[in-house]
Specification:
The chain is of the alpha/beta class and 418 residues long. The chain contains twelve helices and 13 strands. A five-stranded mixed beta sheet has the order 3-2-1-4-5, with helices on both faces. It has a four-stranded parallel beta sheet with strand order 7-8-6-9, with helices on both faces. The protein has a two-stranded antiparallel sheet with strand order 10-11.
Length: 418
């Protein structure tokens, strides 16, 4: 008997998460002899608990294909934590009830580390109660901090955006440096890991001698050291660009940009490291400083996505379906780097038990000895991930993106209080 599949998006969205949705839905359609319908849960696990399901079968093949070049989450994402089922069993029981009511045998969750935690808990509970449910995590995170995979879909495109923006902004500040701005401070995402910040260093190479200082979250923030580094760069070049990760910490362990509030998973809300750093440099050196926070722009910039990233995002979505119907459970498809130069890759897999709640930080050997740059091995790791362009179609000078019908499936259960 054919069973249905349920796909959901979770956590911060990316420029290519919909490419994974495209890969999963198209794979499900190719395996129509095994999978009945592919449902999508709006707002991730929240939609699933609400029994708020979308029937993707009403969408045309062209509409689903258009997901590949559409940014953000076509079905809506969420930040919603599931407690362990020995603490809060009712939500798990509700999820199984929804699966039974709609003949769902495959659960595909598209997210990062916290989503891996959700996915493995659901797999464990289904096994505990004897419900046949294949749970597979489709990897996604711009932070590139998932364990077990060479890179995370979403990261390559953010890295490309940050590298391009850093180069272009450096040219701009160089133009103004004699009589105006001497320092540009660019804040990028990265709570604990400096992968995104490291990408800013790619802006400088043998053909672009640009003074760029990276402030990594893996290195304790030190006012004096940064001031000295910036002064030296300005003395030599007349200007400099500082790329600062939102997650940089002071010596006492506090985030430089901590706002005093937490998200649903207990993570400190961050944002505002750039103006703090700009203020420090301006006060100490008397330079005119400009700053910017990339924020949502870095993760939604589908117009400058990495072709490698798009291809990998699609591939893990497709692989997740194939693994699920093959009987794999509590698993995550991974990207395996099979060669560095030329760059080649393949799909692998890793148990979710090794992924959930584990962060992969930027290796110390990827950070230069002075703490403000990247090493050659880091550059060799990063450069292949930003290769290739995959422009969306344009009309009237603007990219054309898809908004799906998102037709709801009739509910069969009583309302549920989240």
């Amino acid at each position: 008997m054919k069973q249905n599949a349920l796909y959901g998006q979770s956590g911060g969205v990316t420029a290519v998460i919909n490419a994974s949705a495209c890969g999963a839905i198209e794979a499900a359609r190719r395996h129509g002899h095994i999978i009945g319908k592919m449902f999508a849960a709006p707002n991730g696990i929240m939609g699933a608990l609400d029994e708020d399901l979308i029937d993707t079968t009403v969408e045309s093949d062209d509409a689903i294909a258009a997901l590949r070049h559409t940014p953000a989450g076509a079905f809506g994402s969420c930040r919603f934590k599931l407690e362990d089922f020995d603490i809060d069993r009712r939500r798990y029981e509700r999820l199984i009830a929804v699966c039974k009511a709609h003949n769902i045998g495959y659960f595909l969750y598209n997210g990062g580390g916290d989503s891996a935690d959700t996915c493995i808990k659901i797999a464990q509970f289904a096994e505990t109660v004897g419900y046949p449910l294949q749970s597979v995590l489709i990897p996604k995170t711009i932070d590139n901090d998932l364990f077990g995979t060479d890179t995370c879909p979403g990261f390559g495109s953010v890295a490309k955006y940050i590298a391009v923006s850093t180069r272009e902004a450096s040219f701009d500040v160089r133009s103004m440096s004699r009589s105006s701005t001497k320092v540009f401070v660019f804040e990028v995402m990265g709570r604990h890991s400096g992968w995104i910040a490291a990408a800013g260093a790619l802006a400088a190479d043998s053909n672009h001698d640009l003074p760029i200082a990276i402030v990594f979250p893996e290195i304790t923030f030190d006012n004096a050291r940064l001031i000295a580094r910036v002064r030296a760069m300005v003395d030599r070049y007349g200007y400099c660009t500082v790329v600062v990760s939102e997650g940089v910490k002071r010596a006492d362990g506090r985030f430089l940009a901590e706002q005093g509030t937490n998200d649903a998973f207990g993570h400190s809300q961050l944002g505002g490291a750039a103006p703090i750093v700009a203020g420090i440099l301006s006060s100490a050196l008397g330079y005119k400083c400009h700053w910017a926070v990339a924020d949502y722009l870095q993760r939604s910039a589908r117009h400058v996505a990495s072709r490698i990233d798009v291809d990998q995002a699609y591939a893990v979505g497709k692989a997740a379906v194939e693994m699920a119907i093959a009987g794999e459970n509590a698993i995550m498809p991974t990207i395996v780097r099979t060669s560095g130069e030329p760059y080649t890759w393949a799909i692998g897999k890793v148990p979710l038990a090794e992924v959930a709640n584990v962060e992969k930080l930027l290796p110390q050997e990827f950070i230069s000895a002075d703490g403000f740059g990247i090493t050659n091995p880091c550059r060799a790791y990063l450069l292949p991930l930003i290769q290739g362009e995959d422009y969306p179609p344009y009309k009237n000078g603007l990219p054309t993106y898809i908004t799906l019908k998102n037709k709801r499936v009739p509910k069969q259960l009583r309302p549920f209080e989240l």
